[in-house]
Amino acid sequence: MVSDVDNNKQIRTITDYMNDETRVSPADRARINFEVSIIGKMIEAREEKGLSQRELAAMSGVKQPAIARLESMKATPQIDTLFKVLYPLGYTIEIVPIESSSRNTQMAET
Questions:
Q1: pLDDT digits over 42-86, tens only?
Q2: Which whole-number Å values give the CA distances from 53 to 46, 99, 110, in the listed order?
Q3: Which terminus of the chain is less hemmed in, N or C, by CB atoms within 10 Å?
Q4: Are the C-beta atoms of 73 and 43 separated by less than 8 Å?
């Protein structure tokens, strides 16, 4: 538990921490959520295709230890690496308007 002496708040969960704009800005929260989402999808797609990290490495040209670091969230994914890894899995990355993205997230949660 983290205590904020100035505001007399207690942070009990990672969600509390992430939702506290004095600690995590909305832009940082969006970046973190994007990384978690894309890495989760990458792992899901790799497993659905029955590929090991080593096999994905051979297909993508990205070394297996780099894929392991990405999947364990020990490295921030670079865009060129994401494209190399996602392409053999049948995926790409898109830029969508925030409003559209927010609506899709809200619809998925209901």
A1: 999 999 999 999 999 999 999 999 999 999 999 988 999 999 999
A2: 8, 35, 34
A3: C
A4: no
pTM of the model: 0.70
Which CATH number belongs to the domain containing residue 43 in this structure?
Answer: 1.10.260.40
- One-letter amino acid for residue 21 of the chain: E
Number of neighbouring beta carbons within 10 Å of residue 18: 15
Q: How many domains does the chain have?
A: 1
Answer whether residue 18 is part of any domain: no
| Interhelix angle 53-60/79-86, nearest 10 degrees | 110
Structure tokens at 66: 């780099």
Q: Is residue 8 assigned to a domain?
A: no
- Determine the longest span between alpha carbons in the chain, in angstroms: 52
DSSP codes, 25-68: -HHHHHHHHHHHHHHHHHHHHHHHTT--HHHHHHHHS--HHHHH
Residue 57 lies in a domain: yes
